[in-house]
Write a structure and sequence with these properties.
Layout (H helix, E strand, L loop, with lengths): L1 H12 L3 E7 L2 H17 L2 E7 L4 H10 L3 E5 L14 E4 L13 E2 L14 H12 L7 H10 L12 H11 L3 E7 L9 H6 L13 H11 L4 E2 L2 E2 L7 H17 L3 H5 L3 E7 L11 H12 L4 H8 L5 H27 L2 E2 L4 E4 L9 H9 L10 E8 L2 E7 L2 H5 L4 H11 L3 E4 L3 E7 L3 H18 L2
Parallel strand pairs: 1-2, 1-3, 3-4, 4-5, 11-12
Antiparallel strand pairs: 6-9, 7-8, 10-11, 12-13, 13-15, 14-15
This protein binds manganese (II) ion.
Length: 459
């Protein structure tokens, strides 16, 4: 992979003008930022755009723009075999066919690595950046934000594979540090009771989603919730207090029969960006990724990008505004999906939000729902949302246990969408598709058949 990264580095060095095309999520924004910073430092003429997916419209536009070189980051693996009219390099981690093994295409799947856990789009972009100049090792922090944005730390409760090498680059030069701690979101910025209330992976029965239960749980555990007028956050608690909470949560999970494997997921490695201010949304990698996601989902890619490039003023403020709006929309989306109802079939469960949830957040809502009491955790969950243009977005999410049993949502979604003249793909645990409106029922039939085949053939 490093050899391929160097080859791509050489293509960049030999070009004067480079246009970056990246994906609209935390991994895509960090990948785009790493690419852009690399080109800036090289003094290359550059530009950047973010897209939801590489469809024919985008490709046609790119073809007409006649860029000397196009750098696809966190996407592009699906076009590596065709579109030879665009002079390109690709640093991606999405599944790709073996016959896309070209010298311009860096993808872990081409090297026998797992692109859903071992390295992200930002990570592959970082590898190229580092081969160009060792001074770009400071960008490792963005690569880790991207990896965690794609939940690559969740399978093993810590980063793994090439991601660990990138992490150690960052630790070596002091931009990142890691330690074991609680995995729930908001360690640095949320009052402790809120951190528990929004816990979702794993879900704590009787606690998650219930504010008053969280408060009484903390009281019973003997945790003071306020310090003067200020709510205490997880990072304000003493080591002893944290231990007590973790042990009491574990107790709840174990007595409810969740087993050690799930209970262990409470604790894992967390990552800190050492040069950011403590208690801000940028200090903890997971919170940073969420901040970026909330800029991307509302089309404000440049806001997230500027934050990655170092702005801590105007753009950061705007990003925080978007984050607040995003939280509001997620809560509303979750409520909406529950009201519409979750329908179970033999091999999947689904909801259809129509225009009630933005197509850009239906995947996050599906993920939150999958971790809630409203859904079965033995079935993958599909969420539909109208996209406009007579198209429907389908987002599929599954548990790691199902993936371990042979489920591959990426291939199932791609195959099902293809039969209906749509497009689909992604990762084994999380995938998406766009299909013509009105074909949802048919789509579910095909998808269910695919899932059934996957799960029965792996036994
Ligand atoms: Mn990605």
């Amino acid at each position: 992979m490093l050899k391929r990264a160097r080859e791509i580095g050489n293509i960049i060095r030999n070009s004067k003008e480079i246009h970056i095309v990246s994906h609209i999520d935390a991994d895509g924004i960090t990948a785009g930022a790493i690419a852009l910073q690399t080109l800036k430092r090289l003094g290359k003429e550059h530009s950047i755009e973010f897209v939801k997916q590489l469809d024919n419209q985008v490709l046609e536009k790119l073809g007409n723009e006649n860029h000397e070189l196009v750098w696809f980051t966190d996407l592009g693996s699906n076009i590596s075999t065709n579109y030879s009219d665009i002079n390109k390099i690709i640093t991606d981690h999405h599944k790709c066919p073996k016959n896309s093994d070209y010298n311009f295409h860096l993808n872990p799947h081409l090297f026998g690595l797992d692109g859903s856990t071992e390295i992200s789009g930002a990570g592959t972009t970082y590898l190229v950046s580092k081969t160009i100049d060792k001074n770009n090792m400071d960008l490792s922090s963005l690569a880790i934000v991207g990896a965690c944005g794609d939940l690559q730390n969740r399978r093993y409760g810590k980063l793994h594979g090439l991601n660990r090498k990138i992490l150690s680059d960052g630790e070596k030069i002091g931009v990142i540090s890691s330690k074991m701690d609680i995995q729930f979101f908001g360690r640095e910025t949320r009052p402790v009771y809120k951190l528990l209330q929004f816990s979702s992976d794993p879900l704590i029965p009787g606690i998650s989603g219930r504010e008053s239960s969280c408060i009484s749980f903390l009281q019973e555990t003997g945790i003071k919730m306020k310090d003067g007028d200020n709510w205490r956050r997880w990072v304000d608690l003493s080591k002893d207090e944290r231990k007590k909470i973790i042990s009491n949560i574990s107790q709840i999970l174990l007595t409810k029969g969740f087993g050690h494997k799930i209970t262990k997921r409470i604790i894992g490695e967390i990552y800190i960006l050492s040069q950011e201010k403590e208690g801000t949304e940028l200090h903890d990698v997971k919170e940073y990724a969420t901040l970026l996601n909330s800029t991307a989902r509302y089309g404000q890619y440049d806001v997230g990008l500027e934050v990655c490039l170092g702005d801590r003023d105007k753009y950061l403020k705007e990003a925080l505004n978007l984050l607040r709006g995003h939280r509001h929309n997620l809560v509303e989306g979750l409520r909406f999906a529950k009201e519409e109802g979750i329908f179970k079939r033999d091999y999947l469960q689904f909801f259809h939000a129509g225009t009630g949830i933005r197509d850009t957040i239906v995947g996050i809502v599906a993920n939150m729902l999958l971790n809630s009491e409203e859904t079965s955790n033995t079935l993958p969950l599909i969420g539909f949302a109208d996209k406009g243009n007579n198209e429907v977005k389908a987002s599929a999410r599954a548990t790691q246990e199902l993936v371990d049993k042979g489920l591959d949502l990426s291939s199932a979604m791609r195959k099902a969408a293809k039969q209906l003249d749509g497009v689909g793909g992604g990762h084994n645990i999380a995938a998406g598709a766009t299909i013509p409106k009105g074909k949802e029922e048919e789509f579910l039939d095909i998808l269910e058949q695919e899932i059934k085949t996957q799960l029965s053939s792996s036994v």
